[in-house]
Amino acid sequence: MKERKNIYTLLHQDAGSAARTGVVSLPHGTVQTPAFMPVGTAATVKGMTKDDLHEIGFEIILANTYHLFLRPGLEVIKQAGGLHGFSGWNKNFLTDSGGFQVFSLSQLRKITEDGVTFQSHIDGSKQFLSPEIAVQVQAGFNSDIQMQLDICSPYGISKRETEKALILTTAWAQRAMQEWDKTDGSYQGSLFPIVQGGFFEDLRIRSIESIMELDPHGIAIGGLSVGEPEDVYKAFLAFTAAHIPKNKPLYVMGIGTPDYILEAVKNGVDLFDCVLPSRNARNGNLFTRTGPLSIKKREYEFDFGPIDPTCSCKVCRNYSRAYLRHLFRSKEILYSMLATYHNLAFLHRMVGEIREAITQDRFSEYYCGFLKEYYGRV
Hints:
Blueprint: E1 8-13, E2 20-26, E3 29-33, E4 35-38, H1 50-56, E5 60-64, H2 65-70, H3 74-79, H4 82-87, E6 92-96, H5 99-105, E7 109-111, E8 116-119, E9 126-129, H6 131-141, E10 145-147, H7 159-182, E11 190-192, E12 194-195, H8 201-212, E13 219-221, H9 230-242, E14 250-252, H10 258-266, E15 271-274, H11 276-282, E16 285-286, E17 293-294, H12 314-318, H13 321-329, H14 333-359, H15 363-375
Parallel strand pairs: 4-15, 5-6, 6-10, 10-11, 12-13, 13-14, 14-15
Antiparallel strand pairs: 1-2, 2-3, 7-8, 8-9, 16-17
Helix pairs in contact: 6-7, 7-8, 10-15, 11-14, 13-14, 14-15
């Protein structure tokens, strides 16, 4: 059995909430938490160079096992020296297991105890993914954090269906950890099991208890932000996080708007990721301190000010709303590059402010102040 070394160090616990700062120690450097991870589906964040990501200050990004497994394939990435050698990104990679994409993108899929048989969305070829294969592939990628293969239960399904999915996810977590134990000693990446159980408290507890028996390096909370109302998200995030031991890094999957990030941090979450900041940027929606801005609106045609006057990123320093609107309407590639840079820089700065607020025991003040300014509410 491989060593279950502790990768998390708590730095400070906020006096008025579960929010905390810490450090996650990974093979390609430390990650200051809380931390937002940009999503680089195909080992690249769309519209961004690795130098852009370094410049902003990110210490970890996410890549997608499903897409990379299908194209370019494991052997290409292995021969390149893993994802780091292949992409040139020399900091950390978290890779998801590919399970979500199998279930959402595949036209044909069959789930059994062994794993998932599915049809590639690229060429229609028949593919198979098991918990063991997911570990092997991610180890071949040299992922710094890899995720178990799981089944994400959508919002609104019955308890019986949710429990059936949980039983498989639990069994797959055990098999994934056994496979991780067999990986070569040169592979130093961690494996995070995923809490599932849908929107049923007893199933969530069951999932947590089975995961803790595995003594993992870290834990992910799955099955949230899957279409449920905001109050349900908040309730089940708080319930789930409260029942997870605090000595390991906690990751909530698919969180990337300011209000959801703040809610996650309030409940002691350390890591989060989402495609929305970069996707929204490409579609004309930009973050500002006073709320989302739609650059496509005509009111910005003669607006020669920055996207956000409070933002010091290089886009806000050098380009106007009018120019960005022109680039967007002209479908220029530069628009996507600049807009994505700004949105990711905005979130990175926000999370840095959150860490500072926690350190000073004023997270609740920051939480309320940010939401009041951003949405006009708390």
